[in-house]
Amino acid sequence: MLTQTRPEPLRSTLLDRLAGIRHGYFTRAGGVSTGIYGSLNIGTGSADDQALVAENRRRVAEWMGVPADHLLTAYQVHSPDVIVAREPFSGERPKVDAIVTDRPGIAVGASSADCGPVLFADPQARVVGAAHAGWKGAFTGVLENTIATMEGLGARRENIVAVLGPSIGASNYEVGPEFIDRFAAANPANDRYFTPSGRPGHAMFDLNRYTVDRLTAAGVTADALYRCTYAEEDLFYSYRRATHRSEADYGRHVSAIALERI
User: Fold this and answer.
1) Which residues of the chain are modeled with pLDDT < 70?
2) Pairing relation of β-strands 161-164 and 221-224?
3) How many other CB atoms are found less than 10 A from the CB of residue 117?
4) Gap between the Cα atoms of 39 and 229, Å rounded
5) Which of 8, 51, 120, 157 has the fewest CB atoms found within 10 Å of its own CB?
6) What is the CATH number of domain 13-169+206-259?
């Protein structure tokens, strides 16, 4: 797979049906990075050669149909915070976890390596967004805040489609008792997202189902690709897999969405 010479992202059938919207959940294939970063690492925060990262980002932007500096990703901090972007960032990237735009020619993206990248679109209002939703962002409201920010630009939640891209699957996401207690304290019904693991006091957490359920509860049409970043090593980077192997670092992929010019 890593011999692929250009990006070929995964796509959502729901988002593919929307006129004037271009999107892609990019895998690790189709770039120029090597070693543990092979090959489409877009992580500016990684220890990869930043010239290679820049070329990888250029390839993603080209596929998205925008100039390289119009592929916008934030400095993600596992927050519920959202920004509206209508032009390329100047200076340091904003420390937020979701970006929304109503401008054609801007591709907004979320980088990930186990956390959930969620792409949003209202084709009627022509507003799109991308959110980085790990457990903390999803738990503290980044999904709902992205929807509200889109509404601020004229979107209507009943018209919004939101699709979760590749993220760590429940069979590979073991969590400890403090994690479980936090979710139980917030809502006892959250116990449905946990199944027992092989270690006392620990459980397997279904981030995919939790994310889709929160999106559905927020009133949007929601789905997921249900692809596991930990399990599918040929296609995806995984922070947890790299940690389990004591690797020095890990790559990041990007999921991006843009309004096409009409």
Assistant:
1) 1-3
2) parallel
3) 27
4) 15
5) 51
6) 3.60.140.10
What are the residues whose beta carbons fall under 8 Å from the beta carbon of 170, sequence distance 6 or more?
A: 195, 204, 205, 206, 207, 208, 209
Distance between CA atoms of 79 and 111, rounded to whole angstroms? 14
DSSP 181: H
What was the pLDDT predicted at 238? 98
Residue 3 has a pLDDT of 63
Statement: the pTM of the whole predicted model exceeds 0.90: yes
Contact 165, 207 (CB under 8 A): no
Nearest to 180 by CA among 196, 213, 202: 202
pLDDT at 4: 76
Q: What pLDDT does residue 2 have?
A: 56
Can you give the residue ranges of every domain in the chain?
13-169+206-259
- How far is residue 198's CA from residue 2's CA, in Å, rounded to a whole number? 34
